[in-house]
Amino acid sequence: MALSSSPSDVLPIQSVASTKAMTQDVASSTTLKENDGGGFYGRRIIRIITQKGFYSGFAVAAVLAMGVLYLVSNAESSLSSASAFQQQQQAGGGGYVSTGTISGAIFTGDPYRNYGGKRVFRKGWEKRVGKTSIDWDGIQSKLKYYKKKNNKNVHQPHLACRKWAVVTTIFAPSEALIDIANLQDWCMVVVGDTKTAKDWRSAEPKLKDNDSLFFLSIEEQDEWLKLPGEIGKFFQRIPYKHFARKNIGFLYAILRGADMAYDFDDDNYLNKDKATGQLLPLVPTSANNENEVPNVRFIDIKTKSFNHHPLMGATIDGSWARGFPMELIQDSATHGTVASSGNVLPMEKVGVIQYCADNNPDIDAIHRLTKPLPMNFAGEAESSSILVPANVYAPYNAQATLHTGPALFATLLPVSVPSRVTDIWRGFFAQCLFKDIDLSLVFAPPRITQYRNVHNILGDMESEKDLYYKSNKLVEYLSEGFRSDEPSLPARMEELWISLYERGYIEETDVELVQLWLGTLVQIGRVSLSVIKELV
Description:
Radius of gyration: 23 Å
Distance between the termini: 36 Å
Number of helices: 17
Structural class: alpha/beta
Order of helices and strands: HHHHEEHHEHEHEHHHEEEEEHEEHEHHHH
Oligomer: single chain
């Protein structure tokens, strides 16, 4: 996730020396305390890198081993903390079971608690939700108030945009953000947080007079808390200082008539056409037909997890995306094989298009500690998009991702998990529902270059623990375990999130969040009430 926004703050290509220096800075961080497992393994990692060289074979193997030991150490220390661990064992282990050895505990993905809250979308919900009053005129009035305050009166309901870019930031506008804000036929909503400057928009000359940009300061967002019905309650559930504040932007765009959303971070730069020097279009459709995606590869794959990096031409061998199951990173069967090329895919069948990103793409902390950068992918001249088959799962993120109109219901980010987990969980949850409504995930060649903002890599590793421990079990459950006979999309989505709470992937606050989200979308007519096909 973006932590800064100026390309001058980062090196496009990290040298070995700069990597050593950055890693030494990490070791001196106050997050690595002298007496904890993370500090011990962190210091061992630094010592090996410094003595052996970052990319030596011994160093890579040792760093990977130390990284795994660091994770196990943290799992053991957190799970064996006396009363907390005993309570988890009594409740079914908190989803974890001991291996009976010094290796610690493993996550099972089995249900260990029951959801005791209300089920909004149980049988007959259409009539009940339909009767819930919603002050739509008041909401529209509130939206007009924002426009008068921020940007004259240029964006009344009859002038609503259909294509929206959504981003949250605490930093000054980056050039990446400014480029997207100035794209023709696109609007952008920027969601501020507690650290975002109040004059974020007005302080940047390139954005000051942009009629298609809408900045929601934290003060204005607080006004939304007072709105009646599900919308006000929904905003009350979004935590401050969390990446999931982006949910506010998604709902704002939907309320303003979005038929497509570009979900991105402010350190992901849209590439330019080498011939014309103009920014590439955000939607990879045919030049003559915006309703289709050309040159798509269909694949054969026998596994339920798909590692798209090899087929997309990643320049680092053995690479994987953040969120890909750790147990499978050396399983070549997850790479798939090309069954056919040059296919045309109707946009109505596409739910999400995830762009690969060059230079410093979205990979996890273990990848960053064990493999070099930069890493690039094959361009459009050498490669083409890939359609992920139904009921096969691949992690997609919130950094350079297009969501089509039928898939906007699935943009909701969970709030009870860390920011390094929330977008990956969202993507897996969404793919489980996409197969029921004939939508697909597509990976596209890079139109994006990421100059990643400064991160604490060991801090990232700590917040990514759910991805390392739980992703494989989550994919197994979504692809083979979850079954529902609910006939409507809202009811099935609610049932899915409840089942994920009962298995320890999310907390109850996210069940309440998805109920409010769906209630709002139903009331404004932005989610289907029709019967969806039965699971097969």
